[in-house]
């Protein structure tokens, strides 16, 4: 087992954690589900990419957790480390199971990890692209390390905002609205409790099998109602629907939920921000290599222009080159660029590839920092295991 200490960087964005709809947990006993619910308030799984495999990958959600080991990747030495540190939950950024497993015979490292985890009763959870797309996730962390300000999402995720329309008796409007707001409806960026209301009359006729709370069976009833509309993130749909049905006085609740085209500026891939002061290209590349602990920086042609606006995308980011250029970034920091993709800079931007591991290495620090803030009396460990598969000579 080989362990290596890594730098812990406390994110500037920690100040934003208190804005999350979480209550602090101060329990001595917590289950896997308790922990994952906390993680999913930070990085909701509905925002993961469709191709991804996120959530609880190994283990039982009802198991009591003795300790948490946070890692970038789950390898055999990471499971050994979890055993040594009495951690029976591994929170791994990358999912160990990505494609389907038809056999588990131990013939490759994925199968051996799963077998070893099951033998030692260790659960494995991954949030991967859900954390990539999170407002204070992977790319916000890179921005923190590089000292960027005025940050915003580079490629906002589409179809993330929904709109609820429902009709409420006037006498019950505040009760239902408050229940909806508490469940997360009406949250728009830095604003909460947002809605629009229109007053009118609703009509209905209850049959003999109905049990109307207002009006009588067999008689058409006219009720003074308020139509309200409010938007919400798609991760809150289940909670909001439950709140509506439990707080609304009617036996049958009329409501409609639609996905809208509006862009959610806080969810999506990559980020773009600004340095406090312009620096030369060589100075920026030198600082980038130092701050990101990179062994080397592969980059496109220098343009002899100062660097001020910086786009970042952790992991494989070639698909965002066009977005970085469109955003007028001076440099785009990412990983896994192929030979011909460097041509796409087209003398408009500097493309800087620092390595996949290097762009995501601080992700586990981010998760440990977050979990420690939310459950400060719980055993949470930053993995010391080496998981970078790339070596340099």
TrEMBL record:
<keyword id="KW-0479">Metal-binding</keyword>
<dbReference type="InterPro" id="IPR015867">
    <property type="entry name" value="N-reg_PII/ATP_PRibTrfase_C"/>
</dbReference>
<dbReference type="GO" id="GO:0046872">
    <property type="term" value="F:metal ion binding"/>
</dbReference>
<comment type="subunit">
    <text>Homohexamer.</text>
</comment>
<dbReference type="InterPro" id="IPR017221">
    <property type="entry name" value="DUF34/NIF3_bac"/>
</dbReference>
<dbReference type="GO" id="GO:0005737">
    <property type="term" value="C:cytoplasm"/>
</dbReference>
<dbReference type="InterPro" id="IPR002678">
    <property type="entry name" value="DUF34/NIF3"/>
</dbReference>
<dbReference type="InterPro" id="IPR036069">
    <property type="entry name" value="DUF34/NIF3_sf"/>
</dbReference>
<feature type="binding site">
    <location>
        <position position="360"/>
    </location>
    <ligand>
        <name>a divalent metal cation</name>
    </ligand>
</feature>
<dbReference type="Pfam" id="PF01784">
    <property type="entry name" value="DUF34_NIF3"/>
</dbReference>
<feature type="binding site">
    <location>
        <position position="94"/>
    </location>
    <ligand>
        <name>a divalent metal cation</name>
    </ligand>
</feature>
<feature type="binding site">
    <location>
        <position position="356"/>
    </location>
    <ligand>
        <name>a divalent metal cation</name>
    </ligand>
</feature>
<protein>
    <recommendedName>
        <fullName>GTP cyclohydrolase 1 type 2 homolog</fullName>
    </recommendedName>
</protein>
<keyword id="KW-0378">Hydrolase</keyword>
<dbReference type="GO" id="GO:0016787">
    <property type="term" value="F:hydrolase activity"/>
</dbReference>
<comment type="similarity">
    <text>Belongs to the GTP cyclohydrolase I type 2/NIF3 family.</text>
</comment>
<feature type="binding site">
    <location>
        <position position="132"/>
    </location>
    <ligand>
        <name>a divalent metal cation</name>
    </ligand>
</feature>
């Amino acid at each position: 087992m080989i362990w290596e200490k890594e730098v812990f960087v406390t994110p500037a964005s920690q100040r934003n954690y208190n804005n999350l709809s979480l209550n602090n947990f101060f329990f001595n006993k917590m289950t896997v589900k308790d922990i994952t619910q906390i993680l999913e308030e930070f990085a909701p799984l509905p925002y993961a990419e469709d191709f991804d495999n996120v959530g609880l990958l190994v283990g039982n959600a009802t198991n009591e957790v003795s300790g948490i080991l946070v890692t970038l990747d789950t390898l055999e030495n990471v499971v050994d480390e979890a055993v040594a540190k009495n951690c029976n939950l591994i929170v791994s950024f990358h999912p160990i199971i990505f494609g389907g497993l038809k056999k588990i015979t131990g013939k490759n490292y994925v199968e051996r990890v799963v077998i070893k985890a099951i033998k030692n009763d260790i659960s494995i959870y991954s949030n991967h692209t859900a954390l990539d797309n999170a407002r204070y996730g992977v790319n916000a962390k890179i921005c923190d390390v590089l000292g960027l300000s005025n940050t915003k999402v580079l490629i906002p995720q589409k179809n993330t905002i929904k709109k609820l329309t429902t009709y409420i008796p006037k006498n019950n409007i505040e009760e239902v609205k408050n229940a909806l707001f508490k469940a997360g409806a009406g949250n728009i960026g830095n604003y909460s409790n947002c809605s629009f209301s229109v007053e009118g009359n609703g009509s209905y006729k209850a049959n003999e099998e109905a049990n109307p709370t207002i009006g009588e069976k067999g008689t058409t009833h006219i009720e003074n109602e308020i139509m309200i509309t409010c938007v919400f993130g798609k991760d809150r749909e289940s909670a909001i629907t439950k709140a509506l049905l439990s707080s609304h006085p009617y036996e049958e609740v009329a409501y409609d939920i639609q996905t809208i085209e509006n862009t959610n500026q806080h969810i999506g891939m990559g980020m773009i921000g600004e340095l406090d002061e312009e620096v030369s290209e060589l100075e920026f590349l030198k600082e980038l290599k130092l701050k990101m602990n990179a062994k080397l920086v592969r980059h496109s042609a220098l343009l002899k222009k100062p660097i001020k606006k910086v786009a970042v995308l952790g992991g494989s980011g070639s698909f965002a080159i066009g977005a970085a250029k469109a955003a007028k970034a001076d440099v785009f920091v990412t990983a896994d660029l192929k030979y011909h993709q460097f041509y796409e800079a087209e003398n408009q931007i500097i493309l800087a590839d620092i390595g996949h591991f290097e762009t995501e290495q601080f992700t586990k620090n981010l998760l440990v920092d977050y979990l420690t803030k939310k459950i400060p009396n719980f055993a949470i460990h930053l993995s010391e295991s080496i998981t970078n598969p790339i070596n340099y000579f």
